[in-house]
Amino acid sequence: MLSIGIVSENIFFRAAIKRILMPRIFHKDHVIAYYDDLPLAMGRNCHDILIVDDAVKSMLRFSMAMTLLSAIHGVKVFLTTEEKRRLLFRSVSRDVVVLDKKISIPGMSKEFSFLVDKVTQHSALNGDVEGGTVRNTKNRLTESEVETLHLLSFGYTVTQVSRILDKSVKTVSTQKCSALRKMGLKNRVHNLLEISSGFSEVI
Fold first, then answer.
1. Does the pLDDT at position 144 exceed 60?
2. Average pLDDT, stretch 162-166?
3. Closest alpha carbon to 75 in 108, 110, 45
4. Distance from C-alpha of 8 to C-alpha of 56, rounded to nearest angstrom
5. Helix, strand, coil: what percent of the chain each, to 5?
6. According to the UniProt entry, where is the signal peptide (predicted)?
7. Which of 53-62, 94-103, 129-138 has the highest mean pLDDT?
8. Angle formed by the axes of helices 143-153 and 169-182, to 10°?
9. Rounded to whole angstroms, how far apart are CA atoms 191 and 183?
10. How far apart are CA 46 and CA 134, in angstroms?
């Protein structure tokens, strides 16, 4: 069963997304839930796909947490944005895609259909999500990597993080490199800063 969460305060946005998805994935084997705010969708029972309206007030505050949610739980996150289409998060096993809200409904439907097909095909190859647990854990971040990446993304240096976490500089540096590699990002400062803001340029 595929579980989908739609986060938006706009009932028309919800209705539009539901109409777009219905021909492809809205049937008895799929569940769609609606939320007004992002934190409400970040509970223990994670969705396989999370569609977020960038007009949600808490978007900026929880952009980092949402990125980590994808890394830890393998959740597929689709965003709509007023800006040029960009890639929020990228890894070997997961894709988080930002869609431009200004494109037409037929165009958006085509984009969603392509992405949903991609998700479905990938699930068949790598195992579905059951009981909130991802079977394919090869590229998932560890709790230590998440903790390290979270602090580094706020501008702390490797040395400062090592003191905060009471770990050696070498350990923190290794965890940083490992986390970025799993996320498909190069070991550069601007990548950490972009993760904290929730956006990374398309590769």
1. yes
2. 86
3. 45
4. 6
5. 50, 20, 35
6. none
7. 53-62
8. 100
9. 10
10. 10
| In contact, 81 and 99? CB cutoff 8 Å | yes
| Amino acid at position 122, single letter | H
* H-helix or E-strand spanning residue 130: strand 129-130
**What is the torsion angle, in degrees rounded to the nearest 10, for the CA atoms of residue 173, residue 185, residue 142 and residue 81?**
130
Residue 38's Cβ-count burial label (10 Å; 0-12, 13-18, 19+) is: buried
Round the average pLDDT of the chain to a whole number and report it. 58
Does pLDDT of 200 surpass 50? Answer: no
Using the structure block, give the residue that is written with the tokens 């040029």. Answer: 84
Separation CA 49–CA 29 (nearest Å): 14
Label residues 137-166 b or e (16+ Cβ within 10 Å = b).
eebbbeebbbbbbbbbbeebebeebbeeee
The pLDDT value given to residue 91: 31
Amino acid at 197: S
